[in-house]
Design a protein that fits this description.
By secondary structure, the chain is α+β, with helices and mostly antiparallel strands. The chain has a single domain (11-140), classed as Thiol Ester Dehydrase, Chain A (Roll). It has helices spanning 11-21, 61-80; strands at 32-38, 41-48, 53-54, 58-59, 87-95, 102-113, 117-126, 131-140. Strands 1-2-6-7-8-5 form a six-stranded antiparallel β-sheet, covered by helices on one side. The chain has a two-stranded antiparallel ribbon with strand order 3-4. The protein is globular, with a radius of gyration of 14 Å.
Length: 144
């Protein structure tokens, strides 16, 4: 993508929408926070606690998967508008290293913002900027 699209909603509008319309994402409380939003990207923070750990003290794979998926969902919604019928159609996630409790940052970059499909890349890093997981997610979006 040569020119990155500008967001069409603010981080505050997006978080209000998600809390109102997608409250099941907050079963553990509001642990996800938009850290940064800009042209073609969004960074979502998860403050991983003991509730997110698997045996051995590692943040669980399902927790990391959810973080990546939500980061993509948030980024897409920020750039196409608050259209709740966007759905994941494909995910590939590589786990690179153990994630300890604490802040994790998932940065989603829009690779292709098409009329029906959006292709993204998501990198999950810890507070030391170490790469925890890297993935690609594709979403089907309502016609615009």
């Amino acid at each position: 993508m040569s020119k990155h699209p500008e967001p069409v909603v603010t981080a505050e509008e997006l978080e209000d929408y998600i809390v109102r319309e997608f409250s099941q994402a907050f079963r553990d409380g509001k642990v996800y926070h938009i850290e940064d939003l800009g042209p073609g990207y969004l960074t979502l923070r998860l403050d991983a606690t003991d509730a997110h750990l698997r045996p051995g003290g590692t943040v669980s794979g399902p927790t990391l998967f959810t973080l990546a998926d939500l980061a993509a969902y948030y980024a897409i919604m920020a750039h196409i508008g608050l259209k709740g019928l966007s759905v994941t159609t494909s995910v590939h996630l590589d786990f690179m290293r153990k994630a300890a409790p604490g802040p994790l940052y998932a940065t989603c970059t829009l690779l292709k913002l098409g009329k029906r499909l959006v292709v993204t890349s998501v990198a999950i890093k810890d507070a030391e900027d170490d790469l925890i997981a890297q993935g690609s997610l594709t979403y089907s979006v309502p016609p615009r």
